[in-house]
Predict the 3D structure of the following.
Amino acid sequence: MKAREFWLLFFPSLLVMGALLVLPLVRTVQWSFEQVRYGTPGTFVGLENFTDALTDPRFHKAVLFTVAVTIVTTAILLVFGYIIATGINRITTSRPLVLGIMLVSYVLPNLVGAVAFSWLFDDNFGGVVNRLIGFFGGSQVLWFTDQVPNAILVIANTVWHMLPFAMLIILAGLQGVPNELKEAAKIDGANGFQTHISVIIPTIRGVLGFVTLITIMDVLRMFDNLIPLSPQAQNIGNESIMLYVYSVAFADGAENLGLGSAINVLTIILILIMLIPFIRGIFKEAKAER
Amino acid sequence: MSLTSAELSTRAIVTKGAPKRKRRGVNRPPVITGLLLAILCVVVLSPFIWMTLSVTKPTDVAFSNPPVLWDYQPTLQAFVDLWETTYFSDYLINTLVVAVVSTVIALAIGIPAAYALSRFPSYVSAILLVLALIFRALPRFAVVLPMYDISRALGIYDTTFALAIALVAINQPFTIWLLRNFFAEIPKELDEAAMIDGCTRIGMLRRVMIPLMGPGILTAGIFVFLFAFQEYLTALVLTDTSSKTVPVFIATQLGQTLPMLQQAGAASMLLTIPVFVIAFVAQKYLVAGLADGAVKG
């Protein structure tokens, strides 16, 4: 393909992304150095927004909460995604049904899923989960007003929402493991568990890395599900970074765009650092293709 | 760590199911596996089962503790109220219009772009793909807050078109990655043969590639549609009253009176049903897209 043809075909997409992604992003970076409100030109304040953000205890709490949820969720998703993928890999006829059911929690609007999820824990709706806990002799849990139970609720919902994705990618990875490898391990006397640990998992580590990266990036950006799951987020210290950005930069009366933008820029830098190995992978592939 | 390693053998999952080896006598029949997966399915669906029950109960029964599991007269009153006392039908229409418009535009500009990326092996393509990956990963507020400012300045704030086009842009990185991976599987020789036969590049794309890419385009279309259908954050920031979408409406109903909560539940059910149907009917396309797309939305 000639370069001229390439640019002709790519141009409409480039135009949309340039105008609606690149320009806004430039504006965000610019705002992060300004004291600014919507619709007015800002005044340059240098790094003030960044120092404000980094010294705000509310931001520290939000970072701590977000990072904790991210780490726990990612770990659970890898383990359970792997176990379930192994299970699904063994069934044949009922596979489309199981995949169809599992996909529902993934493709549903995150907010709607979180509303449905919260009702299981909400004592206003009969408190099904607390009833179950009571049945097994536990005591009532304050899922919405106690910090740790609420964090567990948020993690449970995030796992519920993201598990189909993790499971499907890992399943794709499992399909790519050659049978010869598994048979060789068996001949060498490895049991099922050993085969998984020392043969299959190392073989699909690229896939697991990919799942880890996407999960981390998506959980770092969590916002929608906290609306129904953590209505008291700020009071109990379970605010996510993006909820914090929303409340300082957009919610009524705040409009502290500079501060919100500074946090966005900090989040972008963090994400870029995590993407480095993948970016190198893409360039390596591009080189190989030429 | 290669990005495309996730693509490995999607089609094997989709079309063939498990590897067809004779298992009898070698492995245990997967009875326990089947049982555990059945339990998993029930757990996954439990929020919806409970919500369906809560929404179809009379209001006083729905909010009683301990819960009343039977011995009540099921009712669709919450749905009737939702329809009669709120502007739900408007919100539903807005949501559908946004989803359809953004899907059509996203595919119309995404297909040629993805094709170009798959057929132009150079550093330019690699850089563009990397940029797409970065944009896929960005915190959405970083582009949506300036969009709010710009749309107010341009006077297109709170229009379904502004929301649809914003979603086209936000999902474009995913769209072109997904389609580009599908295009990459079609041999280049096919393009060349068609062009030797006298097709122009555009004619070839239209007559040869698009029919061949049917499943890939369908997959991308379903994803873009679902993303637009799901979107809460962008809709929250870019709409006010006249182009409000269902997820935004549901969020505003929360924390209100009990009948309104039940209406929020009814609205959620109505939004869930089409997604349920899509998930089942298009299951194999969704699976293919998730693994093939590599950059998930």
Q: What stands out?
A: The radius of gyration of chain B is 23 Å.
